[in-house]
Amino acid sequence: MANVISDETIEYVGILAKLELSDEDKENAKKDMASMLDYIDKLGELDTEGVEPMSHIFPVQNVMREDVVTNGDGSEDTLKNAPESNGEAFIVPKTVD
Amino acid sequence: MSLLDLTATQLAKAIKKGDVTAVDAMQAVIEQIEKKEKELNCYVTFDKEAALKKAGEVQAGIEDGTISGPLAGVPVAIKDNMCTDGVLTTCSSRILGNFVPAFSAEAVIRLEEAGAVIIGKTNMDEFAMGSTTETSAYGVTRNPWNTDHVPGGSSGGSAAAVAAGECFFALGSDTGGSIRQPASYCGVVGMKPTYGTVSRYGLIAYGSSLDQIGPLCKDVTDCATIMETIASHDVKDSTSMLRTDTDFTSALVNDVTGMRIGIPRTYFGEGLDPQVKKAVLDAVNVLKSKGAIVEEFDLDLVDYAIPTYYTIAAAEASSNLERFDGVKYGYRAKEYDGLHDMYKRTRSEGFGPEVKRRIMLGSFVLSSGYYDAYYLKALRVKALIKKAFDNAFAKYDIIIGPVAPTTAPKLGSSLADPIKMYLGDIYTISLNLAGLPGMSIPCGVDSDGLPIGMQIIGDCFKEHNIIRAAYTYELARGGFKTPYDKEVQ
Question: What is the full DSSP assignment across A25-74?
Answer without folding.
Answer: HHHHHHHHHHHHHHHHGGGGGS--TTPPP-S-SS--PPP-------S---
